[in-house]
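Final report, section 2: Outcomes. Of the targets proposed, DEAD/DEAH box helicase family protein is the one most frequently requested by collaborating groups, and we therefore present its record in full.
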Amino acid sequence: MATTGKRLAEQIGQGNERVIFSIINKFGSAIKHKNCYNDSPNIIVLVDEGHRSQNGENNIRMQQTLPKAAFIAFTGTPLLKDDKTENKFGKIIHSYTMQQAVEDKTVTPLLYEERIPELNVNEKAIDAWFERSTSKLSDKQKTDLKRSFRKKVKFIKPQIVLC
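The predicted structure is given below as tokens.
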């Protein structure tokens, strides 16, 4: 187990370890050490949660440190937008979908029921507060401010979310 970035650098550089366990964050400090490099093609890096921190600087450092290693990522949540997970690790070898898991009875299906809360707005109270709060503003500034608030109202309107 790589307990520190320095220890990880030693383990990578010496190449004597058969298995090294580390979190990706240790590569940030490990790469500062000269011996943190191993270009052996006989290294396999297994990455858990390949969709999370694997697209940042620490991933770049890890790949610079182990340039010829084979990287295999495991993820329960591949990032589909622009295929970020596939761009970083290559094509998906195997997938086990939520639908398959439900059919196999390994998970319980999650059912979502949309509930739209009733929103009551006391417009008179809001207008009175607005007038008090903006009394020192010009008419143009008040209009701009109202326009800005109107845009934000979109966020409280009901939206359909697909999971």
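The first helix runs from residue 5 to 14.
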